[in-house]
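Q: My labmate handed me this sequence with no annotations at all. I'd like to see what the chain might look like in three dimensions before we decide whether it's worth expressing. Could you predict it?
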Amino acid sequence: MAKYSKKRAFSPVALIILILGVALLAVILLLVQKGKTPDAEPTVPGTTQGVVIPATTEPVTTEPITTIPPTTVPETTVPETTEPETTEPETTEPATTEPEITVTLGESIAFEARVRLGTDCNYSSTLVYDACKSVGLNVPYSVNELAVTGVEVSAEELLPGDVLFFGYDENDTAPQYCGIYSGDGRFIYYSGSKSTVIETTLNDYYRSCMVTARRFA
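A: Here is what I predict for the chain of 217 residues:
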């Protein structure tokens, strides 16, 4: 009779034991693995855990700052274009030149004598003295002193301002009174009979009584 072998199945108890065994094995492996893993990080030789080592600061070499001067660009002066001015020629009218009138000192003396016409100057020599003094000419006061002052001139050379000296008649050689020649054959003198300064003509009578004529100018 053939031998019949019956295959045994796992019982529930055996299955539980197997599971527990596997779990125990897993725990053991875990513990073993945990024992190999250090709780703290390995300390590297030369370093201190928890101590902050200050970093070595190398001196910073500061290079001097070179200031580059700004480049000044020369200004370019553009010459202004100056248009030539058109100058119109000025029309110059010829100046009207009046003839220059020159008044001599003698004419000034005659003018000053004429200003005194109609006045009472008491003496003929006073008229001559005052007229000469008015133009800045110092002369003596008396008739006799006046008769020898200045330069003697003839009757033909008489000019305005010349002083004429007369006697009372043609026989007198010493002057008795005087007057100032005013030009054009006339002279100015003080008339004692009229008590005033007058101007009259140098007529033949006066020419015959004229002792001398003097020019002070």
